[in-house]
Structures are given as C-alpha cells and as structure tokens.
Amino acid sequence: MHDTLTVCETFISIQGESGYAGYPCFFIRLTGCNLRCTYCDTTYAYNEGRERSIDDVLIEAERAGIGLVEITGGEPLLQEGTEALARRLIDSGFELLIETNGSVDISGVDERAVIILDIKTPGSGMSDRMDFENLKRLRPQDEVKFVVTSGEDYRWAVEVINEYCLEQRRVLLSPAMGYVRPEELSRWMIADKLGARLNLQIHKYIFGDERGV
After folding, report:
1. Residue 213 within a domain
2. Is residue 202 part of a domain?
3. Sheet holding 114-119, edge to edge
4. Residue 54: left (phi > 0), alpha (psi -120 to 50), or beta?
C-alpha cells in the first residue's frame, strides 16, 4: 500500500479541456513524466514537487469544496500511489478525471474514474511510445484526446480514430498553440464531417500562460 505521492502542485481553476470544459475543478498535478513532447507546456512537472500523504491531499480536496477533481501530470500513472488516491477521492464523493499520456497501461484505474487518454501524434515526437492497447481498455465514460500540430498530425489522428472505431466514443481534437490555428483544425474537421469535438484550452484563453490556474 503506497500512501504517499510526489505532488508538483494543486490548484483550483476552470476545467479547460475535455467534455467537462468550463466547470470549476480542483487539480492535483503529480510530478514526473516518461515522455518529452515537443509542445509540452508543463515541463516544470518533470521534477518539481514534494512528497505528500494521500490523506493530506484528500483533506485539501475536501477543503477546496469542488465536486470535480482532476489528477494530471506529468504522467500520473507512473506513481504507485495514484490508484489509491483515485479510489479515496471517488469513495469520498468526488467526480474524478485522470489525464494520462497514452504510454502507460490504464487497466488498473478505478472503473468509476473518467480517463482522458491523450494519444500523442507524430508532431509530439512521442507517438512511437504509445500503448495502443489502451484504446481497447477504454470504458464507456472515457475520452480520447489528440493534440494536433499539423495537417499530417490531423490525418494520422483520423486514421487512428477509424482503425479503432473511436467515433463511438468522445473524441477530442486540440490544436497545439503556436502550431495550428483553431480555424484550420475546425475546417479540416468540418470537411471530413468528423465525429469528434474541437477541444480548445479555454483556461489559456481566460488566464493566458499563468501557472496554477
């Protein structure tokens, strides 16, 4: 039983992505990542953080008083205490999202959580690290996200969506800021009549690049 975690930061903000975009959310960002994506906007989470008990994190979540919680990173599933934290949060009545980078087996995650599976496109430099078996492990409530840096990334994502019949799921396509304009990605999706949702990082439109919001 692992009762501690290395936590990079915790904060309250507006959920900026996913099918829960727009809702107030309490975020728990864990330290450490096994990938190095070209467009990563949370590189500080690679190493920054301090050890905290699961009890301590749970108390902070309860004090925040927000029913929606997200565990993110970094890559949260690298830490052995993450699954225990997830169970404790859900048992305490929280609705839980876990954002994971697609390279780590998700089968041990509590069935009651919502997994946001971020499949890395070639433009990330990390697409060869994906565990595509995760796409077969998804539960009905889970979501799949692709961050798109180019037209090539978009076409690659469409191929994955078709190969794994993901249109029956909630699929999110996000334009990488500084690489693809939302208008461009929107036009591609409209032209293909793609059964996916345009996913904008609305917290960045609201708060900019400010950390902890």
Report:
1. no
2. yes
3. 50-53, 4-14, 24-30, 68-72, 95-100, 114-119, 143-148, 170-175, 197-198
4. alpha
Query: What whole-number distance in Å separates Cα of residue 120 and Cα of residue 157?
Result: 9
Asked if the structure places residue 186 within a domain, the reply is yes
Asked if the structure places residue 17 within a domain, the reply is yes
* pTM of this structure: 0.94
The number of distinct structural domains making up the chain is 1
Full domain range(s) for residue 68: 4-207
Q: Is 87 helix (H, G, I), strand (E, B) or coil?
A: helix
Question: Going residue by residue through the chain (213 aa), what tens digit of pLDDT does each one get?
Answer: 579 999 999 999 999 889 999 999 999 999 999 999 999 989 999 999 999 999 999 999 999 999 999 999 999 999 999 999 999 999 999 999 999 999 999 999 999 999 999 999 999 999 999 999 999 999 999 999 999 999 999 999 999 999 999 988 999 999 998 999 999 999 999 999 999 999 998 766 666 666 666
**CATH code of the domain containing 92:** 3.20.20.70
